[in-house]
Specification:
This protein has 266 residues and is of the alpha+beta class. Helix content is 52%, strand content 12%. It has eleven helices and six strands.
Length: 266
């Protein structure tokens, strides 16, 4: 099972502030599609609680959640949809800097004014439905986009992060310390006292990329930061171990789909 490290107190504060700001149920589902219960969030709506008393409806709800968690994970972006009962729901997938999926921030149980109560519902279910907070799809999208920005903060401050295996943490540190140098499979294997075949086999499973892809990604990320901070292409190429500015610019354009000049400060 994949391990988590969660700054529970800080995440709880963040989730609580979002609840007070929007009066919307906002929660977090982990990689195994389990809702984490460590946070003080808005309780499940009376409508949903009553609906889920039926085992068949509870199964429908769980299946709906799972289906759309998979969709959000594939989209890698804000996903707004209507659940099987017509409520507006939203999901924002969380990916770390190594491209590992960490779960999704999920919000919803919102009534769409364009969706009237189902005629098949009983009087009490209809009454509870009409008491749900009313939101338009456009407003839900706005909340989703704001949550997407907050995800950047969560990742940058490691409020939710993947807990590496010890050998993987050593390799991650090694790559950071030797970015300007040529790093081979032999270097990585020697650093963790393992075979090259071990590194080749397990690195991709742990990091989601081959060693070569991961090292290039880290160099390109550092290069972009340097260019955005006003560093010249020539100096950036030299500091990150590229043969010359031409080869660096070619690699940069291939990775980012844009030349370095695009990221220079105005």
């Amino acid at each position: 099972m994949i391990s988590y490290a969660i700054a529970t107190g800080e995440m709880d504060q963040l989730m609580s502030r979002l609840r007070r700001l929007f009066d919307v149920r906002i929660t977090f589902f982990d990689m195994q599609k389990r809702e984490l219960e460590a946070f003080h969030i808005k309780s499940m709506s009376p409508f949903c609680a009553l609906l889920r008393r039926s085992r068949s409806n509870a199964r429908f709800c769980a299946a709906c959640d799972g289906q759309h968690l998979d969709r959000a994970k594939r989209l890698r972006d804000v996903h707004i949809y209507h659940c099987h009962s017509g409520l507006i729901e939203g999901m924002v997938p969380l990916y770390d800097r190594r491209n590992i999926y960490l779960g999704s921030i999920v919000f919803g149980q919102l009534r769409d004014p364009a969706h009237p109560p189902s005629p098949a519902w009983g009087a009490e279910l209809r009454r509870r439905y009409l008491k749900l907070p009313e939101f338009s799809v456009k407003r839900a999208i706005d909340i989703g986009l704001l949550l997407k920005e907050l995800c950047e903060y969560i990742i940058a401050n490691e409020l939710v992060r993947y807990r590496n295996k010890p050998w993987a943490e050593k390799l991650e540190d090694f790559v950071e310390r030797h970015l300007p140098e040529k790093i081979t499979a032999a270097h990585l294997a020697r650093e963790v006292n393992r075979s090259e075949s071990f590194v080749a086999h397990h690195f991709q499973a742990e990091f989601g990329q081959t060693p070569r892809q991961y090292i290039l990604k880290r160099r390109m990320e550092e290069a972009r930061i340097m260019i955005e901070n006003g560093e010249s292409v020539q100096r950036t190429a030299g500091r990150l171990g590229f043969y010359d500015a031409f080869h660096f610019s070619k690699a940069f354009r291939k990775f980012w789909k844009q030349p370095p000049s695009t990221f220079k400060p105005a």
